Amino acid sequence: MKKQHYSVDGYTAQSSIGYLTKRANTLMLAILEPELEAHGLTYLQFVILMWLRDGVAVNPKDICLRFNYDSGALTRVIDQLAERGLLERVRSQRDRRTVELALTEPGRQAIEGVVPLVVEQLNRALEEFSPAEFAELVRLLNKLIARLQRAAEPDKTRSLA
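Predicted structure:
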């Protein structure tokens, strides 16, 4: 028999992992956004610049898929970052029909300038966690994400079964 962590009788929205992770994200954004705003960035702009810095996403399609964001709205955000000289659009060397995004030197400086502030806020949020608890939290969240990604693959059913 499969593990049953929830039951219909005892289920509440507040005990759902979806609610708990969303609530943690909402509270973290409430802490991070003023720090980023003071440096002229929104959270989404910060994420885009970080992903470009770290090589997580290199084109708008990657960002839309990873962030579950509307492509039209994302184009406006990318336009803003390009107008400010923080990133640039470049043709892919592999496929000239594809546009990739590249961090400019001012973009790299901007992101490197806010990373210490973000790290400080994250550490403040986690200060009551032991190193082992922090490692376990990260491990478990990555395990959950991997499981959900497998379930969301297009060639599979949407079921987690």
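Summary: The beta strands are 87-91, 99-103.
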